[in-house]
Write a structure and sequence with these properties.
- The structure is a homotrimer of 345-residue chains.
- Chain A has 345 residues and is of the alpha/beta class.
- Chain A folds into three domains: 92 residues, MurE/MurF, N-terminal domain (Udp-n-acetylmuramoylalanyl-d-glutamate--2,6- Diaminopimelate Ligase, Chain: A, domain 1); 214 residues, Hexapeptide repeat proteins (UDP N-Acetylglucosamine Acyltransferase, domain 1), CATH 2.160.10.10; 25 residues.
- Helices cover 16% and strands 30% of the residues of chain A.
- Chain A has four helices and 40 strands.
- In chain A, the strands form six sheets. In chain A, strands 8-11-14-17-20-25-28-31-34-37-39-40 form a twelve-stranded mixed beta sheet, covered by helices on one side. In chain A, strands 9-12-15-18-21-26-29-32-35-38 form a ten-stranded parallel beta sheet, with no helix packed on it. Chain A has a nine-stranded parallel beta sheet with strand order 10-13-16-19-24-27-30-33-36, with no helix packed on it.
- Chain A is flat.
- The N and C termini of chain A lie far apart (91 Å).
- Chains in contact: A-B, A-C, B-C.
- The interface between B and C is large, with 60 and 69 residues.
Chain lengths: 345, 345, 345
């Protein structure tokens, strides 16, 4: 790519402070910026780099107030991270793959749209329906009756079990498994377990991203549902009969137990665990490694194992560190009381 | 399916309360029951729904005592969940797949029984032995010398490394990895590590279910052993040289470190971690996200990080929440003692 | 194998105590040693077995002082575990597989060295470069432009995304995923998220072991870097833009959030979580299930959620168990103070 700073500012609607004619040839990190590089400043941890970066231009917030001289050219814009992402996406937009590998195995009765790509060793079973512009990378397995919407991408080695439904504009990363049997066993009096058949499916709505290795299990009856706009990172376990609300985001290695319903616009840190049969409201924020043991009302911010109000939990954690000190003080108090009582006698 | 309530009650040995001639056409959830639907009530959380369900009939316990008028037909049976599962399994029992995909790669010397199914792009190495009615879905890899028992199902993308042994009536869910090398490295004086070859194998006994993505590592010498009837959910790590006792059940994302032996009939919540070289007795119950740091005697119920007696841990957790309050009270006591002492002077 | 004890001692430079002519035919565990077996004693937990083992010979430390009569033959050596590992590796060294499966799909422009093995249903995309003696097991997918160094082994079902670089002498276990997109989304004012393109790659240096299912995500810009000698167990999540220093070791199910840099020679227990944008120094040790929330200086030993100095954390944990006791003592103190004050009035 070769653009001037002014050309880029015009594309994203930014305002140039510095040399509008400087030439941009690549994207670069602010801390390791190079001549010709375009960077961005969004996280204040990186602010010191803006005074020393060798990047030719940097996207910054309209509200950024420098505290030292700036040597690079600034492009001011309301949301620099979003603008940077859009520029990268624009640049990254290569002509998508199309065509069907001669090494793929496609069953009878598969229906598909325009510009589909099917990679090597993909296996597609009977009565699968693929939308326009679906891209399926090598080693995916799409079982009977699955439907996949337009513009959805399945990276390598994704498995979609029978009768599951995937929406439009979704991305499933490598190794994701959709619709494996939920973990349902009925205990017997002789300590053995009898498997409960899992007869439902998984429904993933539009604009959902599913991380590498992540598993969404099929429901016992009805559907496990991932609503539109949800973003799940890698290694997440969503058990059978769960429902995850619109635009909720989870970091890696979270585990959601069976039949739990999570609201819209929630944000979960990594390695969070949630018990089963719970209802979590909208806009709930949960700190990493927390364990949710009960229902949660909307707008809560939780932390801890078991989780409670985050601001309270932080105080308790801070004191946990000094427990030996508090215990020593209790012992000292006991000694003093004893002395005071003795003196009285 | 079309059955009358009476026909279903007869199959499972239940007693009808209501209309024995009502027609059942599907399974349905109790809270979303539909005309023609058959539901069940096992978890008391769902009891309120039995008074409002639109399901035509509901399996309930022989001991269930309604507190409001019941509009649906009841089928009373000792274990409604188990009966429901059996009915679903009966219904779900489709003619199993058989035949060998023309896209599979089968090495020399493979021995197999009757009615085996081998899906697309399955790779089976030399000297593998497959029992009757084994079903191997697409993209599985079965390495040299593996033996798989009768009626065992390998879902898509399962890997079984060389010389491992899988019993009868097992189900391995998608992406499970059996017999990868255990994590054994000997530290050197220059801070590098030398790999310890892992020369053992994994033995999985009969009636075991292994969840999606779950890994059971091969032992250094001898065998990592999963005893009969064990049920492991998704994303579980069982390290080398472990042994898991009969009918033990683990929820998703548990991690068992090397050389630990776990007893029979244990129940582990999700995300539990267990240290290495430990012995856990029979009938042990462990709460989710707990960390087991030492040996555990039989019949223990544990919780916490590190785990101790669950009933005690719950008390400590409850107080943890109020640590700031206790610390304030210590400070208050200190002030009062100081005053009392001052007054004395 | 058939060797005398003396022959084995000579190979590893050990000193025989007992019968140098005894014949060794296999490796065996010290607790289950058999006639003809060679075992080792490294972990003191196993010391009692040395007095009862039926193994013909046992590798022990030069410093081992028996407290009971020894019936087996000893081979004394400075590091018995390492010596045992070397012997096993020597024995395990089968002629490596070579050749290209007729069921593999190799694109144009792939360059490779001598003695490469490509298993069934491996898909290799354009412009991949493979070194000498690279072994790629079934169902691996190697995307465009990947480079893999000499003697590196990819077990079954490994995915390496485009432009990633793998060093020499690495082992990637089954199901590992290298270079999936990092989890980067920019929140919008309407609560939706816009994906940030992940334009970087992953660089894995020499002598690295990557566990089964483990994911190393590609960076947004630049590289996620795993330095030489790192050993990662199964189910580990390394997010985008991370860097892990030389010879650092992590047990299963750890999760490292984006842009965190970890030093050399660190040791992490299982299920550890690390927050993003952190710097962890060299030689840091972290106990299992800990959560690292801030920067960590070199040589620290940490434990807890959130983690602090391990020796302090152990004390706090010990007291956590007795919180109800301390609270009761505070209540008792309050009562006594009240009485003392009352008496004064």
């Amino acid at each position: 790519m070769i653009f001037t700073v002014k050309e880029i500012a015009d594309v994203i609607g930014g305002i140039v402070e510095g040399n509008p004619d400087a030439v941009i040839t690549k994207f670069s990190k602010i801390e390791a910026g190079e001549e010709g590089g375009l960077s961005f400043l969004a996280n204040t941890k990186y602010t010191p780099h803006i005074y020393t970066t060798k990047a030719t231009a940097v996207l910054v917030s309209t509200e950024f107030v420098p505290t030292e001289p700036i040597l690079t050219t600034l492009i001011r814009i309301e949301e620099p991270y979003v603008a940077f992402a859009k520029l990268m996406a624009f640049y990254n937009q290569k002509k998508g793959k199309t065509g069907v590998s001669k090494h793929a195995a496609i069953a009878e009765g598969v229906v598909w749209g325009k510009d589909v790509y099917i990679g090597d060793f993909v296996s597609i079973a009977e009565n699968v329906v693929l939308g326009d512009n679906v891209k399926i990378y090598p080693h995916c397995y799409i079982a009977e009756g699955v439907r996949i919407g337009d513009n959805t991408v399945l990276n390598a080695g994704v498995t979609i079990h029978h009768e599951c439904i995937i929406g439009n504009n979704c991305t499933l990363h490598a190794g994701a498994i959709i619709g494996a049997d939920g973990f349902g066993f009925a205990p017997q009096k002789d300590n053995q377990y009898v498997k409960i058949p899992q007869l439902g499916n998984v429904i993933i709505e539009d604009n959902v991203d599913i991380g590498a290795q992540t598993c969404i299990d099929r429901s016992t009856l009805g559907s496990t549902i991932i609503h539109k706009g949800v973003k799940l990172c890698n290694f997440i376990q969503v058990a059978h009969n769960c429902e995850i609300g619109e635009n909720t985001v989870m970091a890696a290695q979270c585990g959601i137990s069976g039949s739990t319903k999570i609201g819209k616009n929630c944000v979960f840190g990594g390695q969070v665990g949630v018990n089963w049969h719970l209802t979590i409201g909208d806009n709930v924020q949960v700190g990493a490694q927390s364990a949710i043991g009960g229902h949660v009302k909307e707008n809560a911010t939780l932390l801890g194992t078991p989780a409670f109000k985050a601001s309270d939990c932080i105080k308790s954690y801070a004191m946990f560190k000094y427990l030996p000190n508090y215990v020593a003080r209790i012992e000292e108090l006991e000694k003093e009381i004893k002395e005071l009582k003795k003196e009285k006698e």
